[in-house]
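Q: Can someone sanity-check these two? First one:
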Amino acid sequence: MGYLFCPSLILFVSLLVILISSTHSLDCSSLKLSGGEKQYANCTELPTLNSTLHFTYNATNSSLAIAFSAAPPNASGWIAWAINPTAKGMVGSQALLAFKNKGSMVVKTYNISSYSSIVEGKLSFEVWNLEAEAGDDGNMVIYGSLKVPASAEKLNQVWQVGPGVTNGHPMKHEFAKANLGSLGELKLVEKVSSGASSPAPAPQVANNDSGDGSKLREINVGSWILGLVSLLVLM
């Protein structure tokens, strides 16, 4: 009994830690978006700056609806999400930048032609329905829709956060590894075996539900734990 108990206890504790960790891990579905009745087909956790992008690509009219969420360094800071139509990286990117202006959230557009020229201006593509919000948790969210090239399958995206805005000009962001690595590809469609394209699958579905999914996960985890406890007792 003693010989079996120790390995069983180790196994039980290990599985318990894994299960508990999984219930508290951050995923796209845990981010509640309060911007109207917006729903998004896809969501991806971006690899840096603890940021998330919800999006829906409409191939019929070549439009992309997005909700970008990130936490600026402080309450007076800014967040930005951009598409670069010509290259990878910051230079040439067409950015949506949000910050608080006299207590209200605003979204501005910036055509970033160089590192030294970050001036508010019209983008190279059409954008509409721009708005932003700030949550009590320190996160800010940018909402918007934009026109993308017809038949586009992927886009070069850039995202960033910064410490503040002075006279309408965003202050420089940090040059830490996370800031410098905040770029990548956004896949709008996925190639299937036949060579045709299909809408990109959703790693997590964005929603504004009441938390029933979380409750279900908690119930399932509870069942696993009870089962493991019963197995331990029998051994």
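And here is the second, same format, sequence then tokens:
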Amino acid sequence: MVWLIRSKARLLVSATRLCRAPVDSFHCSFFYALTDHSVCSIPRKWLRSKAMRLNDVNDIQSGSSSSLKINRRPPVSPFDSSSNSLGLQEFTGSKVENENNSGERLDLFDELKQRFLSFKRHKYLEELEHFQTLKEAQSPKFMVIACADSRVCPSTILGFRPGEAFMIRNVANLVPPLENGPSETNAALEFAVKTLEVENILIIGHSCCGGIQTLMSMRDNGGSSFIKSWVTNGKVAKLRTEAAANHLSFDQQCRLCEKESINSSLLNLLTYPWIKDRVRKELLFVHGGYYDFLNCTFEKWTLDLKGSSIEEGGRFLVKDQDLWC
């Protein structure tokens, strides 16, 4: 009996070591690497189940059959928020490292920790009543669509407090027309307009936009990458820019297209009936914004529905235009 238990324990240890091989080597060659015919003869379902169980074993003390003792960890739910360790870490049985060889990641997260604690002391606790209100529901006045560029943070630039702006960010702050089908951008728009009933949609573009540069450098409408496929949503803005500013340099054309793409996206908003209807009833207003971080200025304008059209080519009129500098 003791011999049988020891033999199975040795087999399980060997199998577990193989299961811990790097992920990139886990292909069909996995079982061919087993040279012990006694291990290969074990059914795969049994091998996997036993190997997973072995992760729960803390210690195996061998001796006589009467002294054999297996200590197991108490079961831990992978979603137990009261645990000091990561639930997922306990669930997978693998160790999660928070640092690389140079320790760089650890330093970055230490900085984030200090920023969070500063936010808690100087914002959260000082405005506790405001944050307590937010736990009940959100009722933002703004839906903001901004670029994913790390240099453009709407909450920092415009000082949005938590609960004031429902926000989505994508490459080049584009809004695809309704005909292009579902995307995370129009899903967020639907929730903001239909459920939250925001009063303002603000599309924020910016200087030196890499997405617009990619759009302007494309020579066809096809995309060979996710980025190129996405930025083709701004092809109308590209065509209008090239027609109006073909004599200008590439950088100058990009700067014009950065603003023109905002206007095209504002017109694309009107292709959604539940947006256009609320704009017509003046329950919703759509605005454009352009942040130039080279000299820290912000341009703001509002779409004039009465003078605008979403027909092919589009006609766009603005009102309440302002420059903040």
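A (reply): Looked at the second one. The first helix runs from residue 2 to 19. The first strand starts at residue 57 and ends at 61.
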